[in-house]
Amino acid sequence: MGMMNANEERQKANRRLGLKMLWLVAASALFAVSLVPLYDVFCTVTGLNGKTENSAAQEFQSAVDEQRWVKVEFTSNVMPGLSWNFHPKQNSVMVRPGQIETVLFEAKNMTNEVVAGQAVPSVSPSSATTHVKKIECFCFVRQELQPGESKVMPLRFYVSPDLPQKVEVVTLSYAFFNAVKAVN
Amino acid sequence: MSYSATAHHDEHHDHPTGIMRWFTTTNHKDIGTMYLIFSLIMFMVGGFMILAVRAELFQPGMQLMQPEFYNQLIGVHALIMIFAALMPAATGFANWMLPLQLGAPDMALPRLNNWGFWLLPPAAILLTLPFALALIGIGDGAIATGWTFYAPLSTQGGIGVDFAIFAVHILGISSVMGSINVIVTIFNMRAPGMTLMKMPIFAWGWLITAFLLIATIPVLAGAVTMLLTDRHFGTHFFSAAGGGDPILFQHLFWFFGHPEVYIVLLPVWGFMPQILQTFSRKPMYGYKAQVYSLWAIGVLSLVVWAHHFFTVGMPIPALVYFMFSTMAISLPLAVLFFCWIATIWRGSMTFETPMLFAIGWIILFGIGGLTGLVLADVAADAQYHHTYFVVAHFHYTLFAGGIMGIMAGVYYWLPKMTGHMYSETLGKWHFWLTAISFNLTFIPQFFLGLAGMPRRIPDYALQFADFNAVSTVAAFVLGLAQLIFIYNVVQCARGGKKATDRVWEGAEGLEWTLPSPPPYHSFTVQPVIK
Q: Please, where are the H alpha helices in B104-199?
């Protein structure tokens, strides 16, 4: 009889420990879900994934660094599913850190339908990501083009003077996605 | 370790017979047997798939199949071999041997154990069903993204991706159940007097595997669930156009995927020293050092994941961190290697089949580890990434380190499990054919990778033709050699020379104190460890 009780005791203890392990599983699941916002915060703070702020920076007031030139290069991509032509009007500009610059990009809808596209920016090297400040960008909102319509779109930006000294060339890349397909 | 003799009482429980015995069983030996048989079947299925791939790669150009089907074969091959062959084999050993080695009457949570196994066959069906559905015109076949599910490829794939996602969910639930069972068994069911630092090292290996599974499987489940919602419910976790990031998927996947390597290998590192000491007839060297090294590797494996995608575009400090942390794993692993070698050093060695596999395993797994160090080097990795060098490397770790290790365990414990001796002659043929053809299959792939042949591509440039032909012929020999293994195992289960209780002259541990085969219920009165 004492044997029986010992067995039941042990079964209870096993169930208790098993249920405690479920808390560990739940903690791991919570960790998995929280990785998504953590990744976003991490990337925004460090700029490691090259994604610039998707909203307008404050107009810059302090002095322009006249001692330094930074070359800013532009590249463009159109992702599958979007039949647009899209390219920068200039391949690169030389800027003084702190000096506001305006460059132009051109997109043309090659289809006979109304199409909305969304441009997604990426900066290389990633140590420059947080120092590229945009005042106005076609990437802030979706762009809608009528059939065959061509549109010249401005980008107003400056490179922050606290850009690390060793960075001499900054590449700003835009990939245009089909925004309708992306949402559906 | 010494222990008192124990009484067994048996055959006083009624249990269902015939097929229902297997559906309803909560007996750790029955469930362990089912895991091992399932693993063997899926090993043959996955092997058959990759032989079709090797046949296609025998010559340059496309001969046998469409590229799309080729992509499906390599991805499902990997998923089956990892989730349905290696992991169930390790769980099968845990079920069979943990209670016997710990002196416990059964696993701690027998019903959970039954569920854990019976989730596996439906998952295997889910993985492979899309092949059959495509034949009758439904969908476009199985998952064709490779086993890594990388977005955005996987967000665009056909129904095969959805099937694979659900299969991974089910396999994950099964693994977590198995892990909880192992942890509770180890903590609560050890024989009186068996402290943690006295328990067999196989239990340590499995304990760490179980914790790693609980830490990482939910992350994988989360990642594939996000993939599912991206595909069907309009979320944008991995879609750059919607504000997501495809690179996030790689981080989530490999946060699971790297520890997964150790999840598969730690149980093998657990029982291998037991085999080595048995056939060297001297005690295992450095038990404590091995326990601490297993823990060090388990913990380190959680913080090195990004070395799987060095080339994705990471800043230098991140590259340097992941390079050095990855290389740091080789330190505790080197401790393990030295302990294994020191265990057999100057021992009275004999070379029965389990020992042959164990020695071959040390050498070949060593090659897998060293080539891993090459890949961990950021500068070198830029050249070797996504080439056949990687394929050869991880087959040295997962086939030699995993499958051949499991085979050593099968030969070691088969007489205990069946009560009969297997054929030593066939076992030796199996070992030598496997070891030689394995090397002939994968050494050419190292050279192909160094020469720049990309992996996962069904066609290749002419200069790679000779090495590929050698690799394909050897792969077929390797596949056929496994038929010897199956024949040997089946014959051993059906009959043969009676095995003694201890089976091997130098065997140590509680499982060898029981008859071969052990009674259906064993250790109902627990032995006392002094």
A: 110-118, 120-135, 153-156, 159-188
